[in-house]
Write a structure and sequence with these properties.
By secondary structure, the protein is mostly beta strands. The protein is built from three helices and 19 strands. The protein has helices at 8-23, 26-29, 89-97, and strands at 2-6, 40-51, 55-59, 66-71, 75-86, 100-102, 108-110, 118-127, 131-135, 141-144, 147-154, 159-162, 165-172, 177-180, 190-195, 200-205, 210-215, 222-223, 244-249. It is globular.
Length: 256
Amino acid sequence: MMISKTLTRLFAASLVMAFLAVSASAYEFCGDNSSWGDKSSARDLREVKIAATGSIEVDGGKNGGISVRGENRSDVLVRACVQAWADSDAEAKNLVDTTRIETSGVIRAIQASEKSNTSVSFEVIVPIQTNLKLSAHNGGISIETVDGTMEFSTTNGGIKLANIAGDVKGRTTNGGVKVELTGMGWRGSGLDVTTTNGGVKLALPANYAANVEAGTVNGGFKSDFPELQVKKSDDDKYSWRNKKVSASINGGGAPI
């Protein structure tokens, strides 16, 4: 696990760069026509706007990732990238054509057969003040510029969080966690994110105030913050294993 200091200006620039590849355009979001051996493939991008109700729930299904981004807007834009693989072009196209996107209640894909080789990933653009409930199985979850109560989980996928606030709780079983925060402290109740088999990288501005708790069972630990450093040797390198550490940095604040 790595907890590092960042300069706010440099962090803001890198944050924009990090998310350009994911959500700069609908084409890039649904532009990866991944191959699957000698299988034929097909894909389709669906877009729909729905009314904003203050909260959304997204189910990525068996093979889909979820990306949520907050903007100054009054509605919700849902993009779904439907991809399928089959023995022929016609079969792959039929799998795509018979996949329906449901946006009434839980945002999810309804497929003709659960055994089909189909993947549906979602990009959802919401008002900044939105509560989220997200779930995936074989796919990652990313959230950017959202303030609200959030619960999310995935089994086989990474988690990326940037410029978020509120009461945030999430976990992944097999995936890394990357958190990049801005400002001088957390706005809201706190942040609680866990991974079982994956690394964690938490980047905070140097003047960020928080109560930080970190732990690892089978992994190393490094921190640029003196309050979170445990010296192992005299060579100015810090390493820590099989322990938990908690400390207040810059006077303390919400729990991270």
